[in-house]
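Supplementary Note 3. Input sequence used for the single-chain structure prediction.
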Amino acid sequence: MYKNVVDFFRFVRGYFEAKEIIAEFDPDVVFTKGGYVSLPVGLAAHSLGYPVVVHESDSVMGLSNRILAKRADKVCVSYPLKSYTEVEKDKLVYTGNPVRNDIYDGSKERAITEFRLHDKLPILFVIGGSQGSLVINQVVSESLAKLLAKYQIIHVSGERDYDWLGFQASKLAPELSANYHLYNFLSGNLKDALAVSDLVISRAGNNVIAEIAALEKAAILIPLASSANGHQVSNAKILSRMGAAMLVLQESLTPRILERKIDYLFENPEERAGLATKLSKLASPEAAGAVADIIYDLGTNFVLETKAEEETPEEKTEETE
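The predicted structure, written as discrete structure tokens, is reproduced below.
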């Protein structure tokens, strides 16, 4: 209760500070991406009469975006428009989710060298989000021996679970441990890991989904049950209904179920290829440009309208003559 009261006063202070900054900076348009920090800024911009563009990455809007969407001029979204029933249809624009350009520069050849891979077994890429996922890490660890007899695994564990996973892997027979490539995180070579993978096992945050889609990869999605507004579960369910990803709910996840899902997809390559193809249809290589165009158009119109309002009657008469 105390924290809620403190947060309220912080929000109010942020709102008035944002108004001062925006009024001084005098932008042509304000763009927000969601998150609690964007709310006072977006509301302040709207109250001052500036156009506001909102971008929503997930299939379920967070609280800040739900509030701002009512006041925004345009709302850019990453999932089919019918997913956003709480927003006026004329405000919605499907742009997709921008991904960093270098994600397309991944190299299978470079990955084989970087990760010490071979061409005798398929490659699984396991990633649990930026911080890793204890649930996914535990299930993969319990299945390691069985999986490594059939697959190579590139596993991004996160910092927290890296040491104990490494200890577990040290108990494996040498011929199995040679197929296991554990990392606490990947940065520049993440694109190579995605490029070389035959199947991705991941949480269902929209950034990783956008990157998997961009590279046309099949995926097993295990959404974080406690994600804000249940957005990861919603993301994964939409993709599952579209036949664009295989969904395993966290509460149903066991080593045996994960093994069976993986084996099924490799025993049925046409099914795996179908997932990848359908997911790739959600990829939006031009998403950043589409969002930028909307921002530019609104800003340009705002400048022209403001200039017209500021012209004196004499100036307007001279232009007419």
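The two ends are 65 Å apart (CA to CA). Residues 2-25 form the longest helix (24 residues).
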